[in-house]
Amino acid sequence: MSTVAVHRDDVGSKIGMWLFIFTELLLFGGLFIVYAVYRYKNPVAFHLAGEELDVTVGTLNTVILLISSATVAMSISAVQYGNKRATLSYLLITILLALFFMINKYFEWSGKFGHGMYPGSEKLTELGQGEVLFFGLYFAMTGLHALHIIIGVTILLIMLVRIMNNKINKTYFVQLENSGLYWHLVDIIWIFLFPLFYLIS
Amino acid sequence: MDNKDNTHIVKYRTYLFVLITLIVFTFISVAITGIQLGKLAVVGALVLASFKSSLVLWYFMHLKYENQFLRLMVGLVLFVFIAVLIVTFFDYSFQ
Amino acid sequence: MSNSHNQESSYLDYKGRFKGIFAWIFSTDHKRIALLYLYSIATFFIVGALLGLAMKLELIAPGKTIMEAKTYNGVFTLHGITMIFLIVIPGLPAVFGNFLLPIMIGAKDVSFPRLNLLSWWVYIFGAAVAISSQFLGNGPPDTGWTFYAPYSFRTTTNMLPAVLGAFILGFSSILTGLNFIVTIHRMRAPGMSWLKMPLFPWALYGTAWIQLLATPIVGITLLMIVAERTLHIGFFDPTLGGDPVLYQHLFWIYSHPAVYIMILPAMGVISEILPTFARKPIFGYKAIVVSTLLIAFIGYFVWGHHMFTAGMSGTAQFAFSFLTFLVAIPSAIKVFNWIATLYKGSIQLKTPFYWAVSFLFVFMIGGLSGLVLGSLATNVHVHDTAFVVAHFHFIVFGGVGYAFFAALHYWFPKIYGKMYDEGWANTGWVIFFMGFLILYLPMFVLGIMGMPRRYFDYVDEFSRLNIVSSLGAILMIFGLIVIILNLVRSARYGKTAMANPWGGPTLEWQISSPPALENFNEIPVVSKDPYDFSNVKLG
Questions:
Q1: CA torsion angle for C477, C479, C480, C482 (degrees, to 10)?
Q2: Any alpha helices (H) in C21-158, and if so which ranges?
């Protein structure tokens, strides 16, 4: 093992986090390219398939994620003020909102599954070609997004514990900032997913 | 190493304003899909989404308070992605 | 900044918390991680080279010689996956980048040493998953390294591990790139402004950005293939409305920039070696820096030239052909700068210099044949023929491979603190170089004659040139053996190397050979240009 003294470089670690966010953006970017191409080729089918999705649930989830994004940002201000209780509460609200999001998502997906609509299902493959692609993309993109929510919640929970242990405090909070950045990324992706899937009918 | 340039504290109020703007624009984008805009609907939805995500980047993700380099890089990454999308469509829009 | 380190224990002898092999595989020291990569890559390279030899032996005569058609398909797929994903993409950055980047910018380590170790573990894990595809399920994958849809999700062979392995290897590549960018931004020694940074770190910087911005696209594309195989979503399945050509677009959006992930560090290595052996500052430092960044940038938008016969629109074909010609300009700028560096230099003919100059030779042949492929009309004629195989072996093997050997001989004294036997090293180079040309030059001709790639058989009229080519392969492997044996032997029994055996101007030559654990006693303060030879002392 190296004995190099642990050097602390908050700016460096934030740059590192941003670079990681770039890779995530491009990961979804690949799917957005696929979406753009297939929507261009099947405008009508995408239009029809979009009607199958519930705008209310989508809007609700958008608002939930936006609020959670604001609260995680506020928790960083709170830690900078040195207010541990506020930090913890804002973070807790964020995590609860994320859970709400997942519950909504669960009911939405299980409703689809109940109607025999899941990737590779017979009912789905009987639909028109464009609609198959729409739902394929819908499940892939919102599924990958949900995976990111789960990872994000896990990270935020770790942050919660570290704040309680005072590992994260007024003078050292770059980890919380980086987790916040990750959470905002999840938000940004949803900001694009929402109109592309729910609002195209 | 300097760890100084993250001393800027954003006020809760700023976040609240941004949040309200974001929610308002969400409802606007839902509302305009009710109007028959045809092809403009896609453009409108994407413009609104871009505006909303810029707000998130600028305020929530602190780009406003970060150094020039990061802002440049975010711009570069978005540019590269959009350019890749456009170049891909050199194929699909001329088939 | 002097040789005062010599009394201190080097990174090779350092004893830490763990013993034996654990002191290596759990070390976060960038130099030890570099050697971990070196040994793993060397192992895979020997496997990959033997697979290549097996293919050439199959092609020594028409019809079946040593293997069945199906085996041949498996062999060229594994050869491609090994060589591309396990060797040339990580190769130079992971081995020499890891070893030298911190030293050349005057730092004690990279920004995130533990992440660095994690990259290696992810690399090994990805390699294990990819290789497991050979032994599990319904036999080795037979799609070629490009995993083209729809065959890649219809074939019954064992695709999943190969695709997932490539996906995991992408992670390793991203982590290395991320680490290098932050390191270059944050860890440069006082006084080392951007334009005082040597060219190898510059090349690594450009490379790291491509690793970061291109790899995710192939990552998601490979995941889509996985989804296609397991869930039948229909992304690329024409029967469900998907578009297989879109797969090719997505694949090459990564895999063409990946070519620059391979070649940029190679160019960086050459830019280090030529000034040292010409004892002259590099010609046009800024032009090389700018062309590095331009290659990284334009290289992102040329992917379509792999798909000229795939049924793209005429507009796209035109655009991609044009962009391909554009990217040739910065590459040519570099070549002119290298040649101008040699002009009127006081040249020392040492092994790394031979490798570097032969790099220039093969790189130019590879680059010019690339223009043949970049032009639409000629591309259609030689598409998917042996010409393409010859072209990319001149670039990927001739470029990256030669630069790798150049780097290995150039920095060998620094890495091991020993000198290699120069006579044997030069002998190995001559045999290898001859073998290389005899192997690949005939393939240009064969391709123009119309011999398709990826077939285990061919018509009789191609047989004469194929015999020549296969004999070249045997000669080249022989040269390889000489080179490797010489280096392995010298690492143990070679004469002790001095701190600066070649008279190199950059920071790595101002510390002991091998470097101490933390590279520098004190972080150096840089005031002169990277290729300033005043005050450079031999020894």
A1: 130
A2: 22-25, 30-58, 69-81, 91-92, 98-104, 113-132, 151-154
Shortest alpha-carbon distance between residue B23 and chain A (Å): 6
CATH code for the domain in which residue A80 is found: 1.20.120.80
Q: How many Å lie between the alpha carbon of B94 and the closest alpha carbon of chain A?
A: 12
Number of CB atoms found within 10 A of residue A117's CB? 18
The residues spanned by each domain of chain B are 4-92
Q: Distance from A128 to chain C by nearest Cα, in Å?
A: 8
Task: Say yes or no: A201 contacts chain B, CB-CB below 8 A.
Answer: yes
- As a whole number of angstroms, the longest Cα–Cα distance in chain C is 71
Residue A48, domain member (yes or no): yes
Which residue range(s) make up the domain with A149?
A: 12-198
Amino acid at A86: A
- Is the complex ipTM more than 0.90? yes
Q: Which residue has the higher pLDDT, C238 or C425?
A: C425
What values do phi and psi take at A15, rounded to 5?
-60, -45
C4-510 folds as: Cytochrome C Oxidase; Chain A (1.20.210)
Strand stretches in C252-339, DSSP E: none
CA distances from C483 to A122, C312, C433, C479 (A): 59, 45, 12, 6
Q: Are the Cβ atoms of B29 and A195 closer than 8 angstroms?
A: yes
**Residue range C441-473, pLDDT digits in tens:** 999 999 999 999 999 999 999 999 999 999 999
Pick from B16, B23, B56: CB nearest A188: B56
Q: Which residues 6+ apart lie within 8 Å of B11 measured at CB?
A: A77
- From chain A, pick out residues whose CB is under 8 angstroms from the CB of B89: 36-37, 40
Q: Where are the domains of chain C?
A: 4-510
- What count of CB pairs under 8 Å joins B to C? 38
The model's pLDDT over C249-268, given as tens digits with 9 standing for 90+, comes to 999 999 999 999 999 999 99
Residue C232 has pLDDT above 80, yes or no: yes
Taking the Cβ of residue A6 and every Cβ of chain C, the question of whether any pair is shorter than 8 Å is answered with no
CB contact under 8 A, A2 and C517: yes
Alpha carbon dihedral C140, C145, C149, C155, in 10-degree steps, equals -10
Chains touching C (3+ CB pairs < 8 Å): A, B
Residues of A in contact with C235 (CB under 8 A): 34, 133, 136-137, 140
The whole-angstrom separation of Cα C442 and Cα C390 is: 8
Nearest to A38 by CA among C496, C488, C306, C237: C237
